[in-house]
Amino acid sequence: MSEQPPPVLISETDIDKRVRELAAEISADYADKGNVVLVGVLKGSFIFLADLSRRLSIPRTVEFIAVSSYRSGSVSSGAVRLVMDVRGNIEGRHVLIIEDIVDTGHTLKYLIGMLKSHRPASVKTCALLHKPGSAQVEVPIDYIGFGIGNEWVVGYGLDYAEHDRTLPYIGTIDPDDQ
Ligand code: PRP
To answer: Model-level pTM?
Structure first.
């Protein structure tokens, strides 16, 4: 594991600015929809969800969901398994899935289908980061923080083998150096 902190890809200041912009956009879009259910996807979304949720100006509830994706090294097999479902009843509610990153798209595609089976009023998606170059399946992302390239990113909730998850910024690492 490298001793040097990962180089900055997106700074704390830029994240903060973008999170505020997303919160304003979401607050405007959901202004007349009553209480929105924010569904954070563990573990990666926990910091983004904490910051975004506190900047919304609409009534909201927080739920969490956990999935396990099968990967061989950094390569997704596309198979996703539900580890923990939402606890509250989301039937008839407006649901906004909160992801730290959409990479191949398999996780979000699975989650949209799974959450729709609870018969919510609507399901929309919000991802802080999107890697369009890695997409394997088409999936709608209604709110995107930043589009990035194919670099491996850590920090602000994202990890590399559980390292660097709580870095306050988004950094890049080279998995071959780890
Ligand atoms: C990451 C991320 C997304 C998923 C995106 O989770 O938080 O949930 O991968 O990848 P995909 O678009 O290729 O499906 P990860 O499996 O690393 O788990 P973690 O959030 O617990 O770190």
So the answer is: 0.95
